[in-house]
Amino acid sequence: MSLGAYLNSIGTSAKTIVAGMALTFRYLIRPSEIVTIQYGSKNNAPKERYVPDRHRGIHILETEKCIHCHICEKACPVDCITMDGTRDAPFDGAWKGDGCFISSFTLDLNKCIFCNLCCEPCPKECIHMGMEFDAAAYTRAHGVKNLLTDAPYSEADRVREAEARQLIEAAEAEAKRRKDEARKAAAAAKAQATPAAAPAAPGAPAAPKPPGLPPPPGAVVPKPIASPTPGMPKPPGAAMPPPPAPPATAGPAMPPPPKPMPPMPKPPTN
Amino acid sequence: MMTPYTLVDWVLGDGAGWIARFIGAVLVWAVPITGFVSFVGLLSIWLERKISAHIQCRLGPMEVGYHGALQTVADGVKLLAKEDLVPADADRFLFAFAPILAFAGTVVGFAVVPFGPGLIVADLDIGIFYLAAVGSLEAIGVIAAGWASNNKWSLFGSVRAATQVVSYEIPMGLAFVTIAALAGTLSMSGIVDQQQGWIANWFLFRNPFTWIAFIIYYIAALAECKRAPFDLPEAESELVSGFHTEYSGMRFAIFFLAEYAQMYVVSAVAVVLFLGGWYSGIAPLDAAVGTGVAGKLVGAGIIVTKSFLLVCVQMWLRWTLPRIRLDQMLYLCMKILMPFGMLTLVGSTMWEYYFPTPEIAKVGGGWTGNTVMTGVVVAIIGTLSLIVYVRSVIRSTPSLRAASNP
Question: Is there a contact between A28 and B51 (Cβ–Cβ < 8 Å)?
Fold first, then answer.
């Protein structure tokens, strides 16, 4: 090695060391470069910082849009979704959906594989994969989530749902009874009016009936005719009573406060 | 020195017998020094974690205490509670003795490290020589640890340590001799006393060659502490953990403490030899340092602060530079540092002969011709550093890079 190469190598070393130390020094004195997120600490960052926009986390349900159609339950490949409710009549302690009254909507996170198959077929797009990923629980029972309250499924939830089941059956029976009564009343009224106004019968109340068909002479009402009866309000939004008070036994079963909209996943740009 | 210069003399007076002096030395020095070594270990390990974390865009320990300041205490408790493991077929006595030897070899270095004016355990007339002698004692402990562990990685590590010792000792000695020739004394406090006054009186600025001596000393000191880029005896990526692979629990903690204490010792020696010791570099302030208890405390604060700054530079270097190979280490020490050390020794003494430092610069301060020469050298080196820094900024910033090369 010649003297020039020797000195040159020393100069190169010194220069590169100084350049490298300048680089590390700039990172050392610049706290804004820190990328660590202190998960689980006091100065926690919002969950949106942890996960990408299209993350498939724990589900979020927009209850007010749900029509209780059970499609997500059927779509679930591991059967982790269960729900209960009725479309017929309101009952005490029900969550109000879109034309339906829901008493339970639970998601078993022990089973869930976060496949998104429940969200895709939803006709109202009311169930979403959320940003939350922290599903740790002390027992398996705590791993079941109540999507209505956005909290772990509790014993109070179970009690309330059992009561709600009875309320639903009662409400459905009541609705059926009122429907039958109304139908009977309508049939009776029709039977009364038949001799007088036979041609008028195909007017308003019996639209689906074929007009040319003569009504049976007796008081027997044809069962399968689903005529809109005045006693059963079809559009429930208009004739709905105010949200019912929760039953006294179920403490935590409050009607949920309006949940904030979950951050919607951005559509893919490409 | 006729005046009582050490604290034991100051406490006991001149007339005390040797038994009283021995007990006094234990109480006044051995206990506080051990405490100080522990404090240095705790603080340095925390600093190391934080500095490494920030360089790597991390946060480091944040949970225990303020920004993790008590994390090391928690780790110490954990290490104390660990099982005392000795590998099968190990040399049990040597295995237990090696950490003690390494730690003792470091702690005896504190005997001549001043903590302030008069705050020195033993102000030996041969202070630097003593340091050079005991500085390598830690290597004996390291070699013993590697041999006693009955592990090939440990043995590789200790062989590397031995190789390293014989290569860094000579340049370090040459740097010592350079300063000793300028100061005319080997005593630590004697060397510091000659750096009183303005900052130009520090031996670092005494002549252009002492810059080289400082760099040589610092590189050799890094090697002595087995710090990156000279952490060959540990070399996590090649030898599992080198000489302390088989050590766990408190014995490992003692090795760890010895390493960090050694970092402080070499930094304090660099401060004493080159950076003015307990003097601040501002002449009016220096006049007050060392008089009375307050003056001693101010001096102690200055020298400890400077030493910790150099410790931080060691950490900064460690997290910047990759580890070099053993042959590169030998090449660096034998073929680069040693010739430059000799050049420094000759050049520095010649400079002192032809441009002798005026007496006024030695005691009082003031700008002399020699200081002007030093200033020119400082300006050149500073400008070069600035150019390198600006270029690295330009290269690492995309917008600036695009603007500079259209």
Answer: yes
Name the DSSP class of A208: T
Sequence-distant (6+) residues with CB within 8 A of B308 are B43, B44, B47, B264, B267
The residue extents of the domains of chain A are 51-186+239-265
The pLDDT value recorded for residue A221 is 43
CA-based nearest residue to B298, from B277, B274, B324: B277
Selection from B64, B26, B22, B28 nearest residue B46 by Cα: B64
A32 touches chain B (CB under 8 A): no
Averaged over A202-224, what is the pLDDT? 47
Mean pLDDT within B127-142: 86
Residue type, B210: T
Dist CA B110 CA B269 (whole Å): 10
- Residue A25 CB-density burial (10 A; 0-12 exposed, 13-18 middle, 19+ buried): middle
Instruction: Take residue B20 and report the two structure tokens written for it.
Output: 């009283």
d(Cα B40, Cα B48) in Å, to the nearest integer? Answer: 12
Cα B266 to Cα B274: distance, rounded to the nearest angstrom = 12
Predicted local distance difference test score (pLDDT) of residue B311: 92
Residue B146 near residue B157, CB atoms below 8 Å: yes
Q: Is ipTM strictly over 0.90?
A: no
State yes or no: pLDDT of A27 exceeds 70: yes
Q: Which CATH architecture has domain A51-186+239-265?
A: 2-Layer Sandwich (3.30)
Q: How far does B266 lie from chain A, in Å, by closest CA?
A: 21
**Across chain B, what does the average pLDDT equal?**
82
A21 and chain B in contact, CB less than 8 A: yes
Phi, psi of B168 (to 5 degrees): -85, -20
**Closest Cβ opposite residue B57 in set A15, A22, A35:** A35
Residues 13-52, chain B, touching A (beta carbon < 8 A): 51
Compare all CA atoms of chain A with the CA of B56 and give the residue at the minimum distance. A27
How far is it, in rounded angstroms, from Cα A263 to Cα A131? 8
- Alpha-carbon gap, residue B309 to B315, rounded angstroms: 10
